[in-house]
Amino acid sequence: MLLIEELKVEVGGKPILKNINMEVPRGETHILFGPNGSGKTTLMMTLMGFSGYHITHGKITFKGEDITHMPIHERAQLGIGISLQRPPTINGLKTRNIVEICGAMQGGADVEKLARELNFSEFLDRDVNHNFSGGEIKRSELLQLMAQQPDLVLLDEPESGVDLENMALVGETINLLLGRGIQCPAPSDGPFVNRASDTAKSALVITHTGHILDYITADKGRVLYEGVLCFTRNAREILKWIRQRGYEGCARCTI
Amino acid sequence: MYDIDTDIKDIDPAGFETDAADHDYLTELTRMEPADASRLLDVGVDTQENARAGSFIQKDRSVIHCKSHRDGLEIMGISQAAARYEWLRDYIWKSVNPDTDKFTAQVKEIPHEGYFIRTLPGVKIAQPVQSCLYIAKEGFSQNVHNIVVAEEDSEIHIITGCATAPHLTKGLHVGVSEFYVKKGARLTFTMIHEWGEKVSVRPRTVTHVEAGGILVSNYISLKPVGNLQMFPTTYLDGENAVARFNSVLVAAKGSHLDVGSRVILNAPNTRAEIISRGITSGGTIIARGDLVGNYPGIKAHLECKGLILNEGLMHAVPELRATVPGVEMSHEAAVGKIDRREIEYLMARGLDEDEAVSTIVRGFLNVDIEGLPPSLKAKLDTAVSETQKDMM
Q: Which option is the CATH number for A2-185+193-252: 3.40.50.300, 3.40.50.970, 3.30.450.20, 3.30.420.10?
C-alpha cells in the first residue's frame, strides 16, 4: 500500500528525516513512536505533500504509483487521508461544509448521521476549527476522515487533548475508520466472505504517549529518533521499553 | 456634522447632466421593462412584491412605483411627503448640512426626489420594505434626498438596492440620507450596490438613534463600481442605543471603494460594533472605521479584515477616540493574503488549489447579516461565488 524508500527531507534547510525506509502493507496499522522533534509530524506532512517539507532524496510509492512529487489533492483523491495535529481555522466555512467536501470524494456522505455517531452534531454549524478545544479538533478531523474514507489513514496524535469521556469514543471511531474490530456477518445466501479484511484500511498513527494503544490494535510499532527509524517491533512491547528506558535508551540499545 | 476625507479621485458634479426625461408611473411593478426588472432583481428587489411590506422605485428622477401594503407604514417620494407634512422641515437638512461638500450642495440645489419611509409608533413590520434607486440615463447625476423615520417602538427593515441600466458608461449617484430612529425603535437597513464600472457614487448619510433604539446597517458591494466614497455617521444620543454595521466589499480592477462608518456614542450604556470584510483583486479599498466614545461605560468594537488577491490596495483605517475615562473600545484590523496552510488543508480534503481558494474566499465574505430574507441570502451566496470566480 505505502512504500517509503531512502527518504530524506529538509525543513527550512535543516535535515529532519535522514533516511527513512518503511512499508505499510494493505490493512495494517503501524504506530510511530518518538520524542518531540524526532521528525514524526514531518514524515506525515511529507507523505501528504504539504509545502515546506523538501524531499532531497528518496521515493514514496502509494498503490504502486510514485507520489513523491504529486500535488496534495491528487494524493487525497488517490486515497490518502490525514488527521492534523493543529489544523488551521477557516473563518466562515462551516464544519458541515468541510465534511461534505470530504464526502464528495466518495460520492457523498451522510453528514448528519456521521456527526451523531461522533457526538459532534452541535459543531456542524460552527466555523471549521474556530475556538475548538484540542479534543474537539480531533473529533472534527475524525469526522472528516469518516466522510472521506481514505485507504491510507495518517493520524497525528489522535488522542492528544481528548478528555476521558470522549477517549473511548475517539478510539472506537478510529477502529471503525480503520475497519478494525467490526463483526461482519457473512451473507446468508453466499459463501463466507471475510469482509473485515477487505475493508480494513492501512494506517500510520503517531503517538507520543501511547494511550491510543488501549483502544486500537496495531500490527507493528516503530521508533523514530533524530530523523532515523531505529526500531521496528510489536507496538506494545516498544511502549513498554520506552516507559522503562526512555527514548534515548531505546534508540541506543538497537545501535 | 459630516466630514469628508478628500483622499480620493476627484469627481466634478458639474460634468454630469442633471436633467432627465420623466418615466411613467407603474401601478404594478410586474409591468416594468424586462431589462430594468432584471437589474432590480440583482439588487434584491422582488418585482412580484412577494414577502415585501412595501416598495419604492425611482428611475432617474422619477418615482415610478411606490406602495405600502401595511397600515402604519408610509412610503412616498420626498416632495410629496414635504407637501403633506409640515413637520418634515424639522428633519430635512437637519442632520446633514448642505454645505458639507459639493455633492450635498448639488442635492440641495438640484434635487431629484428620493424616498420618505416612516413607521408609525408601535408598528412592527416583519417583512422588509424594498427600495431601489436606478439610473437609466447615460451621463446622469441622480441627486436624491431620503428620509427614514422609525417612530417610537416601531420596527422596520429596509432593503435598498442601487443599480444602473446595463451598458451605462457614465453616471453619478448622490444620495443624502437622514435617518431617525426614535425611542425603542429598530431600523435594519440593508444596502446592496451594483453600480456600473464607470459610475461614481457619493452617499451622504447621518442617523440619529434615541434611547433604546437599534440601528443595524448592512452594506454589500460585490460588483465593479467606478468609484464610491461614503462614510455614514451615526449618533447614539439616548441611553442603551445600539448601532451595528456590517460591510462586505469587493474591488475588482478599476474599482475604488472608500467606505467606512463612524459611530458617536453620546449616552450611557450605548454600544456600537463595526465589522467590515474587503477583498481586492486589482482595485482599491479604503476601509475606515471611526468610533467616538463621549460617555463613561460605553462599549464599542471595530473589526476590519482585508484580503488581497493577486494585486490591489487594501488600506484599513481603524480609529478610536475617547473623550472621557471608563470607556471600553477596541479594534482589530488585519490585512493579508490567504494562508497557505488553509489552502493545503482543503487540498488534503480533495479540493484542487483553485477550489480551495474559492472556498476560503466565500468563507471570508460570509458575514452573518441579520434579517436577510432567505431568497436574498441565497442570491448573495451566489453572487459571492460568482464574484470570486471572476477573480480567478
A: 3.40.50.300
Alpha carbon separation from A189 to A89, A183, A185 (Å, rounded): 49, 18, 12
Contacts with A71 (C-beta within 8 Å, 6 or more apart), sequence order: A49, B347, B352, B353
Of B341, B351, B364, the CB nearest to A101: B351
Residues from chain A that touch B349, judged by Cβ atoms under 8 A, are 76, 98, 101-102, 105, 144, 148
Pairing of strands A220-225, A29-33: parallel
Cα–Cα distance for residue pair A29/A22, rounded to 1 Å: 13
In 3-state terms, what secondary structure has residue A204? Answer: strand
Q: Under an 8 Å CB criterion, which residues of B touch A?
A: 339-342, 344-353, 356, 359-360, 362-367
Option in B347, B364, B365 nearest A72 (CB):
B347
Ranking A74-88, B192-206, B341-355, B374-388 by mean pLDDT, the lowest is: B374-388
DSSP B19-87: --------SSGGGS-HHHHHHHHHTT--TT-TT-SEEEEEETTEEEEEEE-STTEEEEEHHHHHHH-GG
Rounded to the nearest integer, the mean pLDDT of chain B is 89
pLDDT in tens, A135-175: 899 999 999 999 999 999 999 998 888 888 888 888 888 98
pLDDT of residue B14: 84
| Residue corresponding to grid cell 458639507 | B100
ipTM for the whole predicted complex goes beyond 0.85: yes
Could you give phi then psi for residue B345, rounded to 5 degrees?
Answer: -60, -45
H or E element: which one contains A124? none
**Distance, CA of B359 to CA of B377 (rounded, Å):** 17
Which residues in A have their CB inside 8 Å of a CB on B?
A: 48, 50-51, 71-73, 75-77, 81-82, 84, 87-88, 90-93, 97-98, 101-102, 104-105, 127, 144, 148
Give the one of A81, A90, A104 whose C-beta lies nearest to B342's C-beta.
Answer: A90
B340, closest residue in chain A (CA to CA): A51
